[in-house]
Amino acid sequence: MRKGANTTTTARISSPLVDVQLTAYQLTLRGLRLPVVVHYGFNLFGAVALLLLGHPLVAAAYFTAASAIDTVQQRLLPRWLAQADGADEAAGAARLAVLCVARIACYTAAPFAMALRGGLPEFVFYALQVATLLMVAMGAGSLSRATFWSMAGVLLLEMAAFGWLRLAPLEAAAATIGLATLLVLLVMVSETTVRTITVWHDAFLANIALVDDLEAARDGARRADRAKSNFLATMSHEIRTPMNGVLGMAQLLKRDEADPVQAERLDVLIESGEYLLSILNDILDVSKIDAGKLEIALAPEPLRPFLQRLVSFWGARADERGVALSLRISEAVPDAAMVDALRLRQVMFNLLGNALKFTDAGSVELVADAAPLNDGAVQLRLAVRDTGPGIPEHNLPHLFDRFSQADESEVRRFGGTGLGLAIVKQLVELMGGQVWVESAVGLGSTFHVELPLQVVQGEVSPAADLADEAAGPAELQALRVLAVDDNAVNLLVLEQLLTSLGQSVAKASSGAEALAALAAETFDLVLMDIQMPEMSGIEALERLRREVGPNRNVAVVALTADVTSGGRQRYLDLGFDEHAAKPIQLQDLLQAIARATSDDARRAEYAA
Fold first, then answer.
1. Which of 21, 469, 499, 579 is deepest in the core (most CB within 10 A)?
2. Does residue 320 share a domain with residue 454?
3. Domains in the chain: how many in total?
4. Helical H segments across 375-419, by residue range
5. Residues forming a β-bridge with 339
6. 74 assigned to some structural domain
């Protein structure tokens, strides 16, 4: 005749996340709440049953008393629940127990009196009501022993009183034994239920706390990652900017230096600066890979010239070390395939560079082979074999880990960050391949790379970046150039580099100054720094292209020390004609200028 007992747990689970951390007392209060209209409906059913039994006055008394206590309860419970945060829960539980006693008494007073004077039908009705209310007590008191026994205790006392008032002494004694058995069972069930649900509730709260901790840790990790990315971007820019002056001036000095001893010293200076930049690039690559921002860009590439340029690049280093460097290409290797030439070159540079670094005598060989796959694809197999000292077996499993070296003595002898092979492994895996090593102490090492590549039919030109690597310095026609940079050293480097090549150079130290110069005279080329105060190079380019003037369609090359936000393609997408990274490498700059000033299609696009 009463409401179901499930509301304790369902209220707990269906609550919004902001309400879930409730105490057992608060959950008990919520479990007892039900719309008063629902209470009235249950009370009406009970009154109708009593009326059908022929007791209209009892029915009226029952409905009135039950509805009155339900009304009082449903007004008190929201108030108590609102006051529960930080309140004395023991006092609150005692107050709730008193309300439950009154509630059960109001429900059962009239049916109990009717059963004492009536016959079997009246007793059956009363017994069913007691059974129903015991079920309600189990649900409502699943987290509170006080609530359960305040409801069940009244019912047990009434049943005992009924037995002694209506039954003969022996029958009453038998009924009392039955009630005692019921009492023991109720104690066992109540304790088990309360203990189980309390444990579940505590575990649930612990999980909620864990979720909060995990979310806090996730947010902290995201903040740390953003801070790391910002730090790397800032440090990259701050290191590259002064290195632009160091390497730029060193290159200028070397161009004019006739003394071989001084030229050798300048070579050491340039190589040291480039080595510092290679370390910085390794760190940035690791950061990009970790952040999932390093993308593989596939493009058609002729494989044989690509491999020949790789070996040719390292030829001078091999000659210096007295090591024979060779290339062997199988007939199975296709003429061209879809590959990220830049990243594959980075992988092979690491492997070939390591092989030459650790091989004091003998040979280094690059072997290329291929095996057919399905749908016009091949498995490209590259192996770098050396006759170096070999790697101990116990070091092989960790060779591709970050900051790993085969031997601590190698760190002292050869240096290095320990990031090269880790980057190799991650790049190869990003390209869908695998890399591994075979080595024996005293016999040398072989590093294997396998990549699935889609074969390209027809003639393919080399990617610009790789073709330029092997090309000599670009020859430039005489140009009127505007160099834009907020750093005076960078402007000096650009001016002297270009002037030494016969170019006419004007300078601007801000975006606004550059736009003023571009409005005043005609230029053939603009070399635009990106990160400038007040107006960035990107904003300056946008305004230049919008405004009508003599240089609206002039070629603009982006010069930036920022290599963390997308590289060359990003600046091409922004509307620049070309891009060169700082520190400026003379050959790279000349090739970027040559491409920008000869890009008739882009000029026509702007003109349109």
1. 579
2. yes
3. 3
4. 408-414
5. 299
6. yes
* C-alpha distances out from residue 230 to 538, 561, 563, Å: 20, 14, 12
Q: What are the average pLDDT values for consecutive 10-residue runs of the chain, which has 608 residues?
A: 37 41 79 87 90 91 91 90 82 88 89 88 89 86 84 88 87 86 83 79 79 88 80 75 82 81 83 77 75 80 91 87 93 92 89 90 94 90 93 86 56 54 90 93 93 85 49 67 91 89 92 93 93 91 90 91 70 91 83 81 46
Residues in the chain: 608
Domain span at 583:
472-607
Compute CA distances 287 → 227, 281, 417, 576, whole Å: 12, 10, 14, 26
Which amino acid is present at 444? G
Angle at 327 between CA 315 and CA 275, to 5 degrees: 40
CATH code assigned at 484:
3.40.50.2300
DSSP string for 186-244: HHHHHHHHHHHHHHHHHHHHHHHHHHHHHHHHHHHHHHHHHHHHHHHHHHHHHHHHHHH
CA distances, 394 to each of 407, 438, 440 (Å): 11, 12, 11
- Tell me the CA distances in angstroms from 577 to 498, 551, 607, one per residue in order: 19, 14, 14
Q: What is the DSSP string of 497-536?
A: HHHTTT-EEEEESSHHHHHHHHHHS--SEEEEES--SSS-
603 and 482 housed in the same domain: yes
Comparing C-alpha atoms, which of 437, 456, 419, 416 is closest to residue 306? 456
